[in-house]
Structures are given as C-alpha cells and as structure tokens.
Amino acid sequence: MSRKFFVGGNWKLNGDKKSLGELMDTMNAAKVDPNVEVVCGAPSIYLDFVRSKLDAKFGVAAQNCYKVAKGAFTGEISPAMIKDCGVNWVILGHSERRHVFGESDELIGQKTAHALESGLGVIACIGEKLDEREGGITEKVVFAQTKVIADNVKDWSKVVLAYEPVWAIGTGKTASPLQAQEVHDKLRAWLKANVSEAVANSVRIIYGGSVTGGTCKELASQKDVDGFLVGGASLKPEFIEILNAKA
Question: Which H or E run contains 243?
Fold first, then answer.
C-alpha cells in the first residue's frame, strides 16, 4: 500500500508577519512535488494570517490545543477555534510540550481524542531522550507513548505519527537513516500487533530531528520513513529541497 509522503514544518515560537510572509511567498512560488502532502505548523496567533496567505495546496497546523471545546482555560485554544480559522491539523505531544511544559502522556491522549472528534488531523509526536537511548529503553519509551495515543484514536486515517528522538531536535545531531528506519520499522510492527495490520500498513510514520536539505534524501529513501517533521529548516528556503526529497 502506498503511503503519501508527508512533510510538516514546525515553525515553533518563530517568525513575524514580515518574515513568515516572505517564507510563504517563497513556498507559493516554488515548484513542489505534487505527490507530497505539506502542512505548516504556525504560532496560534498567526493561524488566520498564514491560512489566508499560504497557497491552498499547503495545509496549516496549530502547534497545540486543549482537550475541550471552550471554557475557563485562560491562554488555551480549542480544535473548534482552530477549525474556525480554516486550519485542519494540529501537532500534539511534541517533546517541547512534554519536557518543557510538563504535559503528561495522559493529557496528550485526551487532547488527541478531542482533536480527532472535532475533525482535526493530528500529527502525534513520540520520541526518546538521550539518556533513554543510551540506557537501551528507546522501544519501551516510544511504545508506551504510542499506546496512549493509540488508545485515543478511532480513525487512523486522520493521524500521522512523528518519531522525533529528543536528542536530535535542534542539536544538529540527526539519527542515522538506519537508526530512524529501525525505530519506524519497530513502530509499524507494534501497530500491527496492537492495532491492526491495515493500520500498520497505512499510517504514515514521519521522522523529525535536525532534518536538513543535506540529510533529507537519504532519510526519505528508507522504506518506513514516510516523511518529516522539520523544525529550524522549515523557516528557510531549503525547506523546498526537503519537500522535494522524493522527487
């Protein structure tokens, strides 16, 4: 079964209207592989602006949301609000949400369930820290994170799983293509054993962690790497090279 290559750009806490406007002009004018699904994760305050400026062939994602539609939750945004801005995706469980802001597996699971019930697509992030990899518990960590997400998913067609080894995010260290492929392969086997063979074959598992124009082609050639979640490089013109990694 062919899985459509998926590239997410996670802009994080970066950009202003001027710089993001220039980036979107570059993207809109670029020749981009039509066989790739592209989604840009914008800061929530710019979701409306980005959706109005970015060509309709590109998707837009919020970088986080809360687990309910509305209420007394100062500073939060809901899937209903995200959809009201014409945005169809959300990134959940990013390691910065987990490790900087202390979000638990349980909360990420609840957010995932609510976002999916509200009709958003979810880019669900998992990944181990350096001490966990060095301690030989990578699989234990990512399987536990994946289980909490899987327990909250009914429709897997709206989910993209993003494997991001935390030690490779923003550090300039990239998991080798073989390291990435090994974890993706094990995740697919976990899905086959714990969800279903159909889901294991169809769900896209993308890689994140210092993906650049220089590393993207070899990573993209791995059979279980179905795309990327790109951080810093998604704010630069080289993002176009990454979008065309399979072209």
Answer: helix 239-243
